[in-house]
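User: Reviewer 2 asked us to show a designed sequence for the structure in our supplementary figure. I'm pasting the structure tokens here. Could you produce the per-position amino acids so we can include them in the response letter?
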């Protein structure tokens, strides 16, 4: 369903998420939004996150600096950039404006990874109650987005979240324990998570790697 006749606001986007619906665009410059409610939903169980050994070592080495909400818009812009395996994006300029406003409202967050101060990876998503809706991630150096994901999952666990929604199951996400959930079962999980009060900033901003990994055990 498109939004041709609907003036979409950040508040409407939040309401849509609370009903299991999320927007996407056909291209970066497309002014219209399409609304999606997948029959099967990708969900990453917070108590079933799989960490490959090599990734644990990378996190422990602390080569990449991890920050939270330092550059939300920059993270979105990077997620929308063309990549070798993706010449078009569903993250339009309109979506960037809507979600940047959600970030100002405290309902959207980014986890960024930096190398020598340069933004090289990260992810962003929407937070409502005890549900976090992961939207997109990017990586410009090896494991940059994966390190951000490790920090995200640890942060959600410490913050008391009940649901990490990944929208769609992919081969990339499956390696971390993502599963597909039928729509009805997903909505039950969502309803329960919305009753929880998650705290995205419960973990300290300068969280040391050992504490991050401990939060996942």
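Assistant: Here is a per-position design you can include in the supplement:
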């Amino acid at each position: 369903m498109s939004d041709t006749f609907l003036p979409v606001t950040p508040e409407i986007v939040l309401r849509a998420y609370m009903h299991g619906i999320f927007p996407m665009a056909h291209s970066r410059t497309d002014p219209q939004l399409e609304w999606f409610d997948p029959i099967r939903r990708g969900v990453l169980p917070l108590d079933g996150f799989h960490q490959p050994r090599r990734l644990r070592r990378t996190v422990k080495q602390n080569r990449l600096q991890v920050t939270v909400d330092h550059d939300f818009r920059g993270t979105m812009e990077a997620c929308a950039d063309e990549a070798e395996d993706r010449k078009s994006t569903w993250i339009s300029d309109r979506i960037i404006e809507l979600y940047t406003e959600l970030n100002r409202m405290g309902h959207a967050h980014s986890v960024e990874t930096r190398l020598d101060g340069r933004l090289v990876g990260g992810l962003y998503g929407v937070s409502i109650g005890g549900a976090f809706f992961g939207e997109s991630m990017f990586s410009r150096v090896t494991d940059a987005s994966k390190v951000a994901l490790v920090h995200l999952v640890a942060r959600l666990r410490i913050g008391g979240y009940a649901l990490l929604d990944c929208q769609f199951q992919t081969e990339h996400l499956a390696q971390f324990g993502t599963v597909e959930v039928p729509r009805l079962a997903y909505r039950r999980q969502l309803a329960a998570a919305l009753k929880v009060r998650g705290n995205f900033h419960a973990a300290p901003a300068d969280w040391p790697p050992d504490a991050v990994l401990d939060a996942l055990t």
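For the response letter, you might also mention the following. The mean pLDDT is 92. The domain at 10-214 is CATH 3.40.630.70 (Aminopeptidase).
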